[in-house]
Every structure is written in structure tokens, then in C-alpha cells.
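[recover] target loaded
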């Protein structure tokens, strides 16, 4: 049975990822930090494994990865979805806030990739998908730190694809646009309507649409695709 390890799996895009891979018959383990009730419900409903871990903490990340690999045995797909946002002027952002965001959005992806790639290599290959953002392709005002972290993921994925390609491991990115998740809870309806109007398809995206793209990149249909960034943004950019 194929296996997938998904970070940030309890809500939003992460939940849709867990549901999609489980529905395709994969053995899935997913991480969560907050919202344990959501994680337990999702695991029970999908027959997946929920593992607690704070990916901002290197020691906790190592424990999370060790437990996930123990549960799965091997890892065919690693989907790095965990992330946090920060909105505000860069001149008002503290160094501690910057470091905290980078620890989750960027350093955790490095730690997880470093921990899982040897397992994939020993198993003969695999697929890594990093969830970036359209703001990683084109920066957003008031979201400079978030944009920087997501742009870094794209560069990381491109470099890693070259590094591990000879081992049969593919590495790609997704760049979602405006997706209907809890990250939009602070937006007024007029703002959401304006974002939908700016999107050529005339609507916001869904977590399930992002999960479908991730599934494609991890499937055999994408066996000759690596080092790419696939936009799932309704044409926003």
C-alpha cells in the first residue's frame, strides 16, 4: 500500500489532502499542532493516523517524523502543508515574529524533508510536494514575511528536485490562490467579493481543488514532472 505523510492536516487544505489520499486508498499519517478535536475526528472518519507535533520546534519535529515513519513503515509522498500567516507592515514586525513564521513555513519544511528523504531513497523513490502560495510567485503588500517564506519554498523545491532526482524522488510545489479556508476568516465579505472578482474564474478556490492538484503531482500520471510550481489560483496571477 502506498503511504503519504501530510503536515498541517487537521483543517483547511490539510484536511482536504488527508481526505483525498485516504479516498484513493493510501495509508495516511498527518500532523497537527492545535485543534486536537478536528484531528481526532478526521482520523476516525478517514482511517488515518493523527500525530501531534509543533513543527516550530526541531526536537518536536524529530519526534513527529519518527512516529510517522514508524506508523507508515515507508513514505511514498511527503506533502508539506503546515504554515502560518502574518499580516502587517514589515516595519511593524518584530524579529521574533519573523523567526516564528519562518520556523513553521520554511525551517520545518527543511527538517521534514531532511528526515524523510533517506527513507524515500531506501525505498526506491517518492514524491515531495510543498504548498507554497501565489504570493510566493509575486509578493503581496502587508504580507512580506509570508511571501518571502513561500518564495523560498519554491527555490528550495527547485534545488531539491535536482539534488534527489537521481534517486527517483520528485519534488514539486503548489501555489494556491485565494482558497476558502480559515485563513480568510478575518476578511470582510466585501473583501472576499473583491478577491473573487480579481480572479478570472470569478470565484474563490476550494481546499479540495488544491488537494486534487497535490494528488496529481504524487500520482504516476506525474511521473516525469519535477522541479515545477503548479498554480492553483483560478488565473489570479
Amino acid at each position: 500500500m502506498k503511504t503519504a505523510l501530510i503536515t498541517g492536516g487537521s483543517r483547511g487544505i490539510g484536511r482536504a489532502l488527508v481526505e483525498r489520499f485516504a479516498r484513493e486508498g493510501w495509508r495516511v499519517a498527518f500532523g497537527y499542532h492545535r485543534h486536537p478535536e478536528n484531528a481526532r475526528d478526521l482520523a476516525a472518519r478517514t482511517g488515518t493516523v493523527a500525530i501531534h507535533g509543533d513543527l516550530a520546534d526541531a526536537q518536536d519535529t524529530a519526534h513527529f517524523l519518527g512516529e510517522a515513519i514508524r506508523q507508515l513503515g515507508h513514505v511514498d509522498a511527503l506533502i508539506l502543508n503546515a504554515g502560518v500567516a502574518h499580516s502587517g507592515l514589515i516595519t511593524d514586525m518584530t524579529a521574533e515574529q519573523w523567526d516564528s513564521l519562518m520556523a513553521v513555513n520554511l525551517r520545518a519544511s527543511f527538517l521534514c524533508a531532511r528526515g524523510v528523504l533517506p527513507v524515500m531513497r531506501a525505498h526506491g523513490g517518492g514524491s515531495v510536494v510543498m504548498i507554497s502560495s501565489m504570493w510566493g510567485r509575486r509578493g503581496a503588500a502587508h504580507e512580506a514575511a509570508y511571501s518571502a517564506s513561500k518564495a523560498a519554498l519554491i527555490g528550495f523545491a527547485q534545488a531539491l528536485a535536482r539534488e534527489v532526482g537521481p534517486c527517483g524522488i520528485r519534488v514539486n510545489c503548489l501555489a494556491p490562490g485565494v482558497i476558502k479556508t480559515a485563513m480568510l476568516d478575518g476578511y470582510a465579505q466585501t473583501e472576499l467579493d473583491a478577491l473573487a472578482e480579481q480572479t478570472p474564474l470569478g470565484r474563490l478556490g476550494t481546499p479540495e481543488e488544491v488537494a486534487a492538484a497535490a494528488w496529481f503531482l504524487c500520482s504516476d500520471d506525474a511521473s516525469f514532472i519535477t522541479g515545477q510550481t503548479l498554480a492553483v489560483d483560478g488565473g489570479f496571477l
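[recover] notes: The radius of gyration is 17 Å.
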